[in-house]
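Protocol step 6 of 9: fold each sequence in the batch and record its structure tokens directly after the sequence line. For illustration, a two-sequence batch is reproduced in full.

Sequence one:
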Amino acid sequence: MTTLPPRAGRRCHNAINPLHSTVYFSPDYARELAALGVTDSNAAYFAGRAAAMGAVGPGVITASFYNFNHELVARHLPAVWDTAAPGAVLAARLRAADATLRRLLGDAAAESEEMAEAARLALRATEACTRHARPLYAAHADLPVPEEPHLAYWHAATLLREHRGDAHLAALLAAGLDPLEALVSHTATGKGMAPRWILATRGWRRADWDAAAGRLRGRGLLDERGELTEAGAALRSELEEHTDRMDAAPYEHLGAAGVERLTELARGFLGAAVAAGAFPQDLAGKG
């Protein structure tokens, strides 16, 4: 039986996860990967997020990332590992995280007692994460915890992000949503990535998007205007509830007071990062 308020774990995740993601939108990350010879933004993303799994091929990425077109993945993998070995990519990503967080938050915040407290709480939550059926989490869980508090917090955020993410993919499979149907229906909630960003970064064509929307309409999940029907909204809600259940352990382990405090700290850091321009302004939305 849960000891937490409803959706407390999800709220904590939603405050922690975006700070991890700032790195992939950062000019510091692009610069670090370019220094290794990886100049294509898609190749850089695939390499950085997958490097913890080793020099894997495109099939592993398509499976574990879920919503990318396999043709796009295969265009860059395994070739990227001939340019930059996984260990070098991981080191570059950590350097980028250091530079990005210091630039967005400032040195004082990065080195603050609040950051050290957030790192301790987030790492405590990860003690209850599990590896089985969670490939991206499991690979990152084998990496060492950085000593610096802001990097330890970023590392813990990575673990919590991938732990929930792996569970969410299982929920998508159970709901019968293929990769693009998952994206289209998420965008229709108003909280997902805008279509132009998806089409620019995930390797799908407009025709693919329209076909996925047609399949969702055929299931009664999307209406003719591209809005979620009552059944579609219910499915998206159940997806998150299903994910919550599979991702409850870290937050139950931390306890209600710890989750509340970590959420408070995480929201403060995230707010500062957003105010400093961490993300493109048109990243999310239906248009």
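Sequence two, same batch, same settings:
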Amino acid sequence: MSANVYVGTASWTDKSLIACKRFYPPGHASAEARLRYYASRFPMVEVDSSYYAMPSGSNAQLWAERTPPPFVFNIKAFRLLTGHQTPRVAFPKDLQGALPPGPRANVYYKDVPAALQDEIWRRYLEALAPLAQADKLGLVHFQFPPWLTGDKASRTHIEMCAERMAGYGVAAEFRHHHWFDDAHRDATLAWLRELGWVNTIVDEPQGFTNSIPTVWASTSTRAAVLRLHGRNHETWNVRDSTAASDRFNYDYREAELAALIDPIRVIAKEVARVYVVFNNNYEDQGQRNALALMNLLGDSAILPTTEPTQRPPDDVASLF
């Protein structure tokens, strides 16, 4: 079969990545230079900033222009839409005055008037349009909060999201163990198939209420997603950290990456594309691990277009 595994990382602008000065060569200080360099090394990236604030169509247009034709962006859904608490300042300035008044700094989707919900959805989808028109929009990634546990209210909200996202490729990532415990795993997978959504396969610390097991199952022929959060039990629920990357501080060993190859290849036979996203975004861990995995995948991995005949560096041993 032809190569169909896209390997990349969650974000290309994380503060600790830039600060470590090990990934970007000297002279790559601008947003444009960094994205162009990143796209010369990987065929895809997951946009993390769209979770924290509404994405903009102008930025999406620049991303499309600064990357080669086959490069793909997976976009994280805005936090309000997934059911997370959302700071008022994260809303577009012209919409902040339409939020319900009150002393709380955060609001939830249920707090937002229906007309404002409609406008946020409209703007969100409008911002995705430049990537979709350039054929560079992979999946929209909905990472739901731990308090969506699989009860009726949780499912109602997610089904509403599915209606709003009709026509788009969408991946769901759950963060409460109930969804994939022994009693609910099959029903959750069947429900995702009915919605037409992609099941997100995760690699993450186990034994917590807000972690789920690794379930190698596809729910859409469109794609599969593997998100690697690292296996750092000590930092999984760390509090008072100064950066989100502290939570995902984990450097995969070569043997751990090698153990993923066969499952990835099996699921790649069931879907059109597999997106492998390294979310261990502390310094350059994700980039090094992603390059090493591409090398281990061999002909299964999509290569960056700017280097059509080259595999990742042969000296991958130095990456560990």
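Proceed to step 7 once all outputs are recorded. Observation for sequence two: The radius of gyration is 19 Å.
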